[in-house]
Amino acid sequence: MTRSRAFLTFALTAGVLVVPAVARPLAASSATTTSTYVLFVGHGVAVVATNDLNTGCSSVYLSTNTTTWRNVTPPLKGSAATSKGQCLYFWSSASFVSPLDGWLLARNGGSTETILRHTLNGGRTWTTQPGGDTGSNGGAQTITFLSVALGWRQQFGVGSNGNFSLERTRNAGATWTTISRDPRGACVFANDVFATATRGFATVDPSPSSNATHLWRTSDGGASWSVMRLTAPATIASGALGLYGRPVFARRRGAMPVDYPVAGGQRVYFYATTDAGATWRLDTVPAPVAVAGELTINHRSAAAQPCFGGASAPVSSGLAAVSVAVNPSTWWILRPGSRGESLVAVVSLTGGHVSRHYARDLPSTRGGALLAPLSATSALITVPVPYGYQTTYETTDGGATWRVLTVAP
């Protein structure tokens, strides 16, 4: 594919960084029978998985720079690995606290069972730890670790027999204890982010379809939860709702974005904390990032369904900006678009610098693309493509150019 580098000029109008109109799309790329998707990015490490949709066989790859990848797939032997030539397990969640220390979770495609593996040497060897359950055939399970010892595992069952549970480990995954079965209303797949052993937050994955007009907050390690909304900036109408991104913490310091609708577009504001999320303040550096594309939030629907408004009465409509962080100071913003029309911005909350590029090399990102940055210049993005496949792209120049991620078998 021919790549073009786009250096765009943005105006600073009334204290707001303005994103201009979109560009023209590119031609479509060929399909594949293998999905490649991001499992985890953070703490100096990126983890992706591939899944052969014909056999169900799944492999895991690790990188510390998003350019050189190493196969770290845990070995599965005998009946635990295959059945009639088909692979039983596919890797679906990961969490690393350093490039060496991390966990991988896989689910059995033929049941609700999950398995858990732990590495202390960057995936060169793995130990088996107690697995769990997805709660239903269409459910899922995710893991997140705050430290080398402390982690949480969430069960998301869906359908008529669906269940929710939140488990916690204090010994690096050796044993797990259920601490909550509160489904938090309709908040399916509201992944948790813990700043301390007791204080945590939850919101759905950042995407235009998230419709998260609040965060869930806990102060007892996840046993109980309550809705949290921040005060809108003075420039936004009083009582206006915004779409909340997932907070990111570095010890007691943290930040989170909130995307508010404004006339003819949207503005992304950042809030900061220095006490592990006990209190939040509006961050005035940089100026709020203005994004083109009208965003509408249905206040009545948001009040009735604090997580999702449902297909008949969506909480939000239009193009929403997706914001995810490298750390509390460096954030990436994706404005989804058609092929060649997605806009990527990298924001520094300390210096106020913002770089912006149209992602000319990307296909359409309107269908729930997952952006996962590793640094101020390197990032991955997983994009759904037709027939259930996913393709992951990588950039090493701050989003100016993207290429399909290829990993060695």
Report on the architecture of this protein.
The protein is an all-beta fold and 409 residues long. It has one helix at 299-304; strands at 12-13, 16-18, 34-42, 45-52, 58-63, 70-71, 82-83, 86-87, 89-96, 102-108, 114-119, 127-129, 140-145, 151-156, 164-169, 177-180, 190-194, 200-204, 215-218, 226-228, 243-244, 248-250, 253-262, 265-273, 281-283, 289-292, 295-297, 316-318, 322-327, 330-335, 343-348, 354-358, 370-373, 379-385, 389-395, 403-404. Strands 1, 2, 21, 22, 23, 24, 25 and 26 form an 8-stranded mixed β-sheet that branches. It has a 4-stranded antiparallel β-sheet with strand order 3-4-5-6, with no helix packed on it. A 4-stranded antiparallel β-sheet has the order 9-10-11-12, with no helix packed on it. A hairpin with a 6-residue loop joins strand 5 (58-63) and strand 6 (70-71). The longest helix has 6 residues, at 299-304. 45% of the residues are buried. The model is unreliable at 1-31 and 308-312 (pLDDT under 50).
